[in-house]
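Narrative summary of target 7.
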Amino acid sequence: MVNVPDTEENRNKCHCKKCPSYPHNCKGELLYCSKGSSLMEIHSGGCLCKSCSVYFKYDLEGHYFCDKEFAGDAFILMRKKKKDEDPVSYQKMVDIKTMAETGKSVVRSMGSPKKIPFSFDDLHFIPAQISKIPLNKEQDVKISVSIGPNAKKPFNVSSPILISGMSYGAVSGKTRAVISHTAKNLNIGFNSGEGGVTHEEMEVASSQLIVQYSTGRFGLTENILKKASAVEIRFGQGAYPGKGSYLPSDKITPEVAQVRNLKKGEGAYSPAHHPDMKTPDEIKDKIEWIKKITNGVPVGAKIGCGNLEDDIKILFEAGVDFISIDGFGGGTGATDSFVRENVGLPLIAALPRAARVLNKLENERENSNLEIGESKNQNKVTLIAGGGIKTSADMAKCLALGADAVYLGTAALIAINCQQHRICHTGKCPTGITTHKPTLLRELNVPESIQKLENFIKVSNEEITQFIRIIGKNDVVEINKDDLISLNNDLSKLTQVKWLI
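Modeled conformation, tokenized:
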């Protein structure tokens, strides 16, 4: 902890046992200034550190070494969290000290741990039994999905489960290899993220590839766009909507630099907005240009959940084939904590709104007399939902609330090898997911991880299929909010799903 030798002489001089704060049930612990904090909880009663000859001999600073440990990414030396202390309040104290020490915002990875008022767990499916007849296991259920059915070349996949964008550099090449091979093997879609496309991905699974057209445009060429099965213009994402992103130079290996078209030692900054899409007309022009050079693959947009009604209306009128919404709680490799924890709407609140506005716009276009939200089949612009989706129940409920497909990010990484250490931004991921260090990459076995990710998606597909059978239907496009009931009255109003009463 501090450069103090743990010697018999220093132990004899140590004042710890004379201190009013000393935990007398600690079985002889001494010399905390050398060995670190006590195993016991310390109740402050006055500290004698500064009266100890060891303290003066080694020119120490501070006190209460018996209760100090390193906290936060900046390794701030501060008191331990008490057993009954609120972890959120303690973390805020750590963050304040980190900002004071470093002069920088606190950066964190993965999704937000903040608990929101409503959860997909508060929604239940209504089982068919008598008035509606459930399906037996041997009866087929269709779960294949068409992304952009009105496009010249729709993107047809076997499942509503898609793998969301995770940029090369933020995640390892091995991780990207696992995802692309799994997507090819299962005929599902996967998103490139903003870090370009690797040669292996293009060779293995361009037929499954959704190329992300991000604000940074890293490694994007017309040739890559032409080989994509769909193109997603990224305006924002759930972890930092309305904000640019940065991949530090220490995560830019020569391989990453080559794919991203960066110079050696150069970091990758993605601005907050596209330089050539600041107006609805410019967005429309860009969509038409991409459709032209790709010969008609679906072109969509990804947005963090914010001003959905206005944003979706502009995208709809600009001619998108699909819209991806990413809710608060969506994961990322790194972002400023103050943004991740305080910006955007939760998916459970945003998704029903997005579905309603899309159905309304589509109905107006077709001059239809259908009640708004009556049938998801009326929505010709595909709606993809993402942000904190973990289980098959989450996925199925998103589909019932109006999504045509779902994006999985963190859940897919956990299936591969992630243990949620939440240090993605440090490059020290011990599971090989978000690191480029050779010693750590050894922990990620590509063939085994492909099998694990395939297993997770296959089981999730089967569980979604079972939910559809339970409600008495045989096609994923038929599932809707009338198949749900809310256990919470406020959530019922928010989602327009029936309440218990």
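The chain has a mean pLDDT of 87.
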